[in-house]
Amino acid sequence: MGKNEYPMINLATEDIIIYDWLSVSSKIMSVQSMLEFLGLQELPFQIISGFYGYRQRYYYDGISVHFDGHNEDMGILLEMSGQGCRVFETFGHGDWERLFAEFTSEGEGYNITRLDVAYDDHTGTLDLEKIAELTQKGLYLAKAKKWTVQNGSDGITVYIGSMKSETLIRFYDKARERGFAAEDGVHWVRCEIQLRHERASNFVKLNRTIGEKFGGVLNNYLRFVDENPNDPHHKHRWNTSEWWINFVKTVEKISIYSKKDIEYNLSRVERFIFRQCGNSIDTYIKCMGVDYFLKKLDERDSRLQERHRAIIDQYRQNSDVHQQNAPQT
Question: Is 170 within 8 Å of 143 (Cβ atoms)?
Answer without folding.
Answer: no
